[in-house]
Design goal:
Elements: H1 3-14, H2 27-32, H3 35-49, H4 55-58, H5 64-73
Length: 74
Amino acid sequence: MLSNNIKIIAAKVLKIDKEAITDNMNIVGMLKKDEIDLITFIIELEAKSNKAINKKEFKKLRTIDDIQKYLDEK
């Protein structure tokens, strides 16, 4: 899954401009502030990537790059 798709999903869920999201931004930290946003983000990622995501493992990730690597390993 391309990091651009991850950024699009993050921007949609967080209601921020996609251009403001960098590959090294702690996006998961931002999502953890609201459990519903985190769950929505995970559901959107699963739908786009066709991969199951373990919520506990996902919470250990931090950045768009981390998410990309995690999905690539699935």
